[in-house]
Amino acid sequence: MPRDGAIIFGDLKGKLVVLRVTCTKCPRHGLYILKRLIRAHGQNSKVIDWLDVITADCPKRSANSMRDQCGARCPDLPKVM
């Protein structure tokens, strides 16, 4: 799979133990163990693609207003990349 400059799970090895997900638009949040994510999805999987999958059921994903769309992010990524 082409990387296209995206962060992949393998990039996070040795930098994070847990990948935190939070949303600025709703109370959605979670902690995901990086080793489990790599085992389940592979170290070459893009974090952004995985984030799209876990937020697929969010009612804000298809909000009409751009300001009201799903705000799920991994807030620790900028700190380690």
Span from first to last CA?
Answer: 21 Å
Radius of gyration: 13 Å
| Helix residue percentage | 10-25%
Low-confidence stretches: none
Topology order in helix (H) and strand (E) letters: EEHHEH
Task: Write a structural description.
The radius of gyration is 13 Å and the shape is globular. The chain has one domain (9-80). It starts with 17 loop residues before the first strand and ends with a helix. The chain is 25% helix and 16% strand. Strands 2-1-3 form a three-stranded antiparallel β-sheet. It has helices at 34-41, 47-54, 77-80; strands at residues 18-23, 29-33, 72-73. The model has no long low-confidence stretch (mean pLDDT 90).
Brief overview:
The chain is an alpha+beta fold. The protein contains three helices and three strands.
Q: How do the strands and helices of this protein lay out in sequence?
A:
Blueprint: E1 18-23, E2 29-33, H1 34-41, H2 47-54, E3 72-73, H3 77-80
Antiparallel strand pairs: 1-2, 1-3
Key terms for this structure?
81 residues; three-stranded antiparallel sheet; 3 helices; 16% strand
